[in-house]
Automatic annotation (TrEMBL):
Family: Belongs to the SNF7 family.
Region (Disordered): 150-171
Keywords: Coiled coil, Cytoplasm, Endosome, Membrane, Protein transport, Transport
Subcellular location: Cytoplasm, Cytosol; Late endosome membrane
Primary location recorded for the protein, binned into one broad class: cytoplasm
Organism name: Dryobates pubescens
Alphabetical GO biological process terms: late endosome to vacuole transport via multivesicular body sorting pathway; protein transport; vesicle budding from membrane
Name of the protein: Charged multivesicular body protein 4c
Amino acid sequence: AALQALKRKKRYEKQLSQIDGTLSTIEFQREALENSHTNTEVLKNMGYAAQAMKKVHENMDLNKIDDLMQDITEQQDVAQEISDAISNRAGFGEEFDEDELMAELEELEQEELNKGMRDVRLPSVPSTSLPSRPGKLLACRSTFLRIKAGSSTRKRAEDEDEMKKLAAWAS
């Protein structure tokens, strides 16, 4: 009985495989028919469109279209010439040489710059000589920077004493 059941199972699996293949073939055929129908409809509509365009273009002549486009271009040129004539200033001797105007502008700018430079005052050069030893200069600078940075009151007093000593040494 078990052997018979296995044989039936194998037979049913084979039938199922055949049915599945048949269904796949039918599905493929259905899709092909749908595509053929769609293609036929598209082709028919393209034919209608071609006939409609032919009817529309029956009354059109390419030579007439070219002539019309040339007429339009000529009229646009005439309109542009009229516009240019109206927008140009009447010739009252107001034509200026662009190079002369630029040269005059540069000259005015240079005069303004020179005038501004005359008013600049440079600081006078110190008359005292600098210390000869660089080590003392560095000490002076570091002391000055500490005072300028604003340290504590006691430190500031010490720094002021050092500055007095340095001033006495520099004199």
